[in-house]
Amino acid sequence: MIGSYRLCCLTKNRTNPAYVGAQIGAARLAERFGCTLVGYAPETPDDVAEQTALLEAALASGPDAILISPVHTTALDPTLQKVVDVGIPLIFFVSSAPAIAADSFVTANNETLATGIADYLFRHLGGSGDVAVVEGLQQSPTAAPRTRGFLKAAEGFPGIRIVGQAVGDYQFAGGRDAMAGILERHARIDGVVAANDVMALGALEALREAGRSAPVVGINAMPDAIGAIRAGTLLATVSYDALSLVGTGVLAAVRILRGEPVPKLIELPADIVDAGNCAAWDMPYERRPLPNWEAVTGAV
Fold this sequence. Notes:
With 300 residues, the protein is α/β, with parallel strands linked by helices. It has 2 domains: 6-108 and 242-268, Rossmann fold, CATH 3.40.50.2300; 110-238, Response regulator (Rossmann fold), CATH 3.40.50.2300. The chain has 10 helices and 12 strands.
């Protein structure tokens, strides 16, 4: 039996459904193992000062372990170092603070998955067309590698032209506004690659409002995106699933507390989800399968 540990889970915001799913997944696994989980998220999306204050509060509460997706690669370092210094197990998920020696980091290769989904779109376009890129929040550790991945994929298609790039801050309204600006500047857009699903859905809204259409792809495989794929409005997404990432982080935290080995880096696979395979993902976070340690790490 796993002990009744108290875990704190800090996400980046309450507005991106992927992070809502992360908290749901963490709570489900904690309950399964008889643990208590307290979730924290800034009211202002991705606010450094607010997440720092929440981390201080979590630390002061005396948890057995802390799981966090830092909103910035360095800004939280002093408080994160306090966690390490007092010996509380620290697990990063989705993003990390590279200067901090956390016990484990659960992620997927952001550049590789971005290259894969962009390649999927470009092949769908027959290797030719004018494409828009909606980028993530610039302070986020995931934004730059995803943009690199999109641009790297384009290098393999001489007929693909990246004609517009705009930042959508990983939010629905941001994605909508970024796409609206691109549409105002470009009479032709043949495809759109967005750095997460919620921005992809925002881009679709901008296209609809402008009376235009183009295939759009995203990243996260969140339930609303799966619904859009089934409805034929979103072309595809990538299974960079926050529930699986934080769920694996909960498993890692419990193993550490039990004195069991845990890899410093756990990279989960991120597969493309489209109309051909989306049925397996078509369920709310409350019913999605929870990760299994042996399956995600190959442990025996």
